[in-house]
Amino acid sequence: MDTLSYKTISANKATAQKDWVVIDAENQVLGRLASQAAKIIRGKNKTNFTPNADCGDNVIIINAEKIKLTGSKLTDKVYVRHTGHPGGQRFRTPREMMAKNPAFILEHAIKGMLPKNRLGRRLFTNLYVYAGGQHPHASQQPKEIKLEY
To answer: Which residues neighbour 135 within 8 Å (Cβ) at sequence distance 6 or greater?
Structure first.
C-alpha cells in the first residue's frame, strides 16, 4: 500500500516543456539581464524545476550591442584571457569587446551564471545572442517577454 498521498514529480529530458522566448537587450543593464536570462535558461522560473535536468527554455537575445554597463565599467572593467604561451596574458575592455563582437559580453556574463559542469555546458547551447534586432528563429514562434527587476 502506498502511504504517500502525493508524489514529487521531477522533470526530465522527455517531460520538460521547453519554450522559446525573445528578450530585447536594448537599454538593459548587463548583469540584471544576464541573471534573468540565466534563470530562464536553467528553468528556475518554472514550477517543475529539477536541478539535474535541462528543463529551461531556449532564450533568444536581440540588440546585444545596445546593452548598458553602469558606472565606468565600459572603460575600467577588464576581460582577461591567456593564449597558453609564456607571457601570453591578454586584456580587453568591454568597449573593445563591443567593437569586435557585441554578443560576447552577454554570452560571457550568462555563462558565468550557469553551473560549472556538463549540465551547464548543455544549458549554454540554449542561448542565442544576436547583435541586431533580427533573429533566424521565427519558425519556433518565440514569445517576447519583458524583464522586470
So the answer is: 22, 60, 62, 128
Which of 120, 113, 104 has the alpha carbon at shortest distance from 32?
113
**Does residue 3 surpass a pLDDT of 80?**
no
Alpha carbons 21 and 10: distance in angstroms, whole number: 23
Give the pLDDT of residue 5. Answer: 78
Q: Cell 558565468 sits at which residue?
A: 112
| pTM beyond cutoff 0.85 | yes
- Contact predicate 54/15, CB 8 Å: no
What are 44's three cell numbers? 528556475
SS3 at position 33: helix
Angle between helices 102-112 and 30-42 in degrees, nearest 10: 60
Residue type for 122, please? Answer: R
d(CA 95, CA 15) in angstroms, rounded, equals 42
Contact 94, 73 (CB under 8 A): yes
d(CA 120, CA 41): 10
